[in-house]
Design goal:
The complex is a heterodimer of chains A (280) and B (331). Chain A has 280 residues and is mainly alpha-helical. Chain A has one domain (2-276). Chain A has helices at residues 7-20, 22-50, 65-85, 87-95, 98-102, 108-136, 147-178, 185-198, 211-219, 221-233, 249-276; strands spanning 237-240, 243-246. The two termini of chain A are 26 Å apart. Chain B is α/β, with parallel strands linked by helices. In chain B, the strands form three sheets. A six-stranded mixed β-sheet of chain B has the order 6-7-8-3-9-10, sandwiched between helices. A four-stranded antiparallel β-sheet of chain B has the order 2-1-4-5, with helices on one face. Chain B has a four-stranded antiparallel β-sheet with strand order 12-13-11-14, sandwiched between helices. In chain B, helix 6 links the parallel strand 7 and strand 8. In chain B, helix 3 (96-106) crosses helix 4 (111-124), helix 4 (111-124) packs antiparallel against helix 5 and helix 5 (140-152) runs parallel beside helix 6. Chain B starts with a strand and ends in a 7-residue tail after the last helix. Classes of the chains: A mainly alpha (280), B alpha/beta (331). At the A-B interface, helix 1 and helix 5 of A face helix 2 and helix 3 of B. The structure holds adenosine-5'-diphosphate and magnesium ion. Magnesium ion is lined by residues 45-46, 86, 162-163 of chain B.
Amino acid sequence: MRQWTGFLTIYWRDMLRFFRFKTLLFSSLVQPALWLAFFGIAMSANFARLSSGMAPLPGIREVRYLTFMAAGVIALTTLFTSLFAGIVILFDKNWGLMREVMASPLPREHVIVGIGLSGMTKSFIQVSIITVFGILIGVEFFSGYTAVRILASLLGMFLFVGIFSLGFVFLSSAIAASLESPEGLQGIMTLLSLPLFFVSNALYPAAAFPPALNALSAANPLTHLINGVRYFTIGPDFQVIGVHYAVTVQDMVLSLGVLVAFAAAMFGIALWRFGKAVVT
Amino acid sequence: MESPPIIEVSSLFHSYGETEAVRGVSFSVREGEIFSLLGPNGAGKSTVINVLITLLPLQKGTVTIAGYDLARDPAHVRRSIGIVFQEVTLDRDMTCREILEFHGRLYQMPGAERKARIEELLALVELEGKADTLTRHLSGGMKRRLEIARGLMTRPRILFLDEPTIGLDPQTRRRMWDYIRAVNGEGTTIFLTTHYMDEADSLSDRISIMDHGTIVTTGTGWELKNRLGEDVIYLETSDNTRARDVLLGVPDVGDLGEKSHGLLATVRKDGTFLLPVLIERLNSEGIRVNAVNLKKPSLDDVFVHYTGRELRDEGRGQETQHAGTAGGRSK
Ligand SMILES: Nc1ncnc2c1ncn2[C@@H]1O[C@H](COP(=O)(O)OP(=O)(O)O)[C@@H](O)[C@H]1O
Ligand SMILES: [Mg+2]
């Protein structure tokens, strides 16, 4: 007997836990929005003062720094949420239900897919909240778009967020399946996320990077997610604090391709690590 | 009439790297019986059970469970068995009902059947009142009962229990035995491991004693005790070493085991009449007898006979260890 829907069991249980504790849920949803509000508004004021002497490039749409940064906050939130989504596996191994799952007929790839989808759902919920909240505090997303174009842009943004999220949930699942205990987990996650964060254009333009960093940035999935989110929420051609951003449809196809390849590779690694895991 | 075997294990080996935890174990369990693997901490009981329930790979040996070959058909084995693990395997943040619901979904039980079975099992283990309580708020005994209920969700033919009453107080242990007997009464074969003599003795139809990775003897509790001889005489003397030589010279004295402060003689005659003879013999050699005890053999004696060690003390040692790791979640 094959179980095509087995992953839904894992998904159901993980979402059950996500919605169980209201204060935890509330803080995880409100935190990125608050970050956007305080950090974004403060930085916006700074950048506005710094660039007040510069003349904007003529003929190119100019957006506020807050708008530019909002896309970065969306991407970073997705990164952190996804990186922590796989950790339930480690806790289940040590104190939870992993023994039961491992001794059940559920194929192991379903565990990975189930955790991947619930991590993706959490990211979607957070991204939705940041987007709505951002627009409320003055982020110029979808400005001048028709309803149809907004819908299409949302679909595009969620496609990028979803695939990126899956990739990082799979990565964190692979790490969680390999570790014996939660000690060191925090360190590994920080070691992973900080370079990704700094070698990306999440909060500041990457144009000023030296060539080596630029190459790294091009290989960074986070950069591709951010490019995608900006493409769909702001547009293909704009300037912010004097830096010109222009991307083509081909660039977006390439970015999507990188994210899909990354997610596929991480799924393979997670499957491999999970196959090796013995829980007794 | 003997029932056909529902579990057959032959020449099972398992090692963790250099550690040979299981070194050639063979036994069979009959359909409908309660079978115990009895042995001290570290004997290899959990390793055996974890291989049988597919948590550990089958390294060497053949195992057939419910008619399925473990090596070729682990998926069918998984569907035929229920498991209660040695360590608590629950999610603190889920309710009793959700724990059972998750298990039913994991095994693809249809929704209606799942719901009916959950109510039935909560009633069986008397947790109806706790159905919507988070498992973090359950007592140790309640957790165990919930885990038994979960093991029975899919109506398995065999229920495996690894140390089902470890860390529970004596009263709760007795109740747990009643649940296990009730489950067995419904026709489920029970395979359990334990390091408690009384548990193996009072629950099981048959017992295998395991030590250092091998099974040293198998039989019903009654068979094991009778195999030792008739009665057991315990003696504490002023000189146990010399007393040992004297006693070995008495033809009716069979095996002689050493305990911490005395000697344990298995005798082939009615001990009531032999005991005065033994005391006289020792006195005449100038050995004073300080304390005596006469009893029919217990499972403890069987254990000492086959392993040369006492199980009780190790059992106690482990108990305090478990009290130390409050919550009983860690290894
Ligand atoms: N994961 C493991 N890695 C290495 N050695 C182990 C592991 N699990 C058990 N052992 C060793 O194997 C032996 C048998 O252990 P176990 O099967 O747990 O015995 P029991 O359940 O009878 O207490 C012990 O010596 C134990 O230390
Ligand atoms: Mg054990």
